[in-house]
Amino acid sequence: MWKVYLILITSVLAGACSKTKSKDCNSVEKTYSFSENAKVDTSRNSQYFFATVSSGSKLVFKYQEKINSCPDIADGGSSFLLIFEADPSVSSFTYATSDLQNANVYSSLICGECPQLARNSSVPASGTITGVRFSATSWQVNFDVQTNFHGHRTGSAIFRKE
């Protein structure tokens, strides 16, 4: 009889110690914003090429996709960033593939297990970006870009002033 109790106690303890993994513990947070009096700057260190936002005379739009992973994944989670400039005096803009370089359109990916090339900021290989000003604090922006290392990204959203 004591063997039955021992087996029951061991089973209960083992079940209490096991962690059930939620099937939908991954989540994606998307943010759409723009800054005034800004510009896209680029810099390089020994390993990476970075595009960042700094003070300037343009509008800089920023789409960020933060992918949160399950807590038990050591190198999980990532963040995709798409940034680009626009002239603050216009009420709309359209960028085609041939305009992406001049508009300082860059994408980058930050993640623990990304290949080194994917961590570099780069101009998308192709795509279109359009924007229409709704007000001083909001723009409707649509993008459809094929990035070099980060896949195909599309979106349509209201970008709000930071």
What do you see in this structure?
With 162 residues, the chain is mainly β. It has one domain. It has helices at residues 2-17, 116-119; strands at residues 27-44, 49-55, 58-68, 78-86, 92-95, 106-111, 126-135, 138-146, 152-161. Strands 1, 2, 3, 4, 5, 6, 7, 8 and 9 form a nine-stranded mixed β-sheet that branches. A hairpin with a 4-residue loop joins strand 1 (27-44) and strand 2. The protein is globular, with a radius of gyration of 22 Å. The N and C termini lie far apart (69 Å).
Helix content: 10-25%
> What is the straight-line distance between the termini?
69 Å
The total beta strand count reads 9
- Percentage of residues in DSSP E strands: over 45%
State mean pLDDT (0 to 100 scale): 82
Shape: globular
Which sequence of SSEs, written as H and E, runs from N to C?
A: HEEEEEEHEEE
Task: Compute the number of structural domains.
Answer: 1
Tell me about the biggest sheet? Answer: 9 strands, mixed
Count of discrete alpha- or pi-helical segments spanning 4 or more residues: 2
Rg, nearest Å: 22 Å
Stretches with pLDDT under 50, minimum 5 residues: 4-22
What structural class do you assign from the helix and strand content? mainly beta
